[in-house]
Amino acid sequence: MKKLIDVCQIDAFTDEPFRGNPAGVVYSDELNTEEMQLIAREFNVSETAFISKSSEADFNLRWFTPAVEVKLCGHATIASIHYLLQQGLIQENSSLTFKTLSGILNCSTKNGIHSLSIPIPELKIFEGNKEEIINALNGGKVINPEKFPFILDNGGYLYIHVSSLSDLMNIKPNFSELFKLSIARKGYDAFTIFTTETMEKDNHAHLRFFAPYYGIDEDPVTGSANGPLLLVLRKLGLVEQNTEGKTYTFEQGDVLGRKGRINVSFTLSKNELTISGKAVTVFKGELTF
Q: pTM above 0.90?
């Protein structure tokens, strides 16, 4: 018998349609892993979120790129919260939990802003071959690891500083070379390139995110990279160490025509790293197979 499943596409970290990062969102208790992967490939956006009933949290949540399942996806989680709110499955100004491959995620929605607390990453200075990465990024003139060392988190994200927004916008990576470096398993599998020069004066950083290893050459707006970026900026001395009670706004996606903005906060006293943003539904439909 054919399956008939409601699906949505939701743009996260924006309140404008066709901006931010698109995520597929599917709520079903009937899908197996193979079917989820096939549906994610059919959506062909950076991630598709699959929500289902849970006995250990309010909901189960899994994320798939067109190529693989991933352990954490910020924008598809924001999209999932937005979906549940629109469907009346959660209430405005409420909290909820998701069981995920990254553990139980604590989330909330308030006045149209959706938030999730993400796992605190471990950061270390990257001591591997930086020259081959710089060459693959075609960033030889704008990346200076002597001044700002590369930072690697334990999720495999490599953080690389450039001095100016124009330098960042003009980087043209060799994605096949980045893919080859990633599959060589040298400790990293995604690349966050960032600067503290911003498009809007009240914001704090602008970034681009490359992950060909996961089937995503460039992701429009990446929650799982923006959150740890605040800790990277602290480690490099690019923001104040005391972030208590402060919210930082990071920019991404403008180079792709998909402007997105993410709010990030880190409360040391609670050891809590939170990302938040808005979302908008761009279409609803039915999937049959």
A: yes
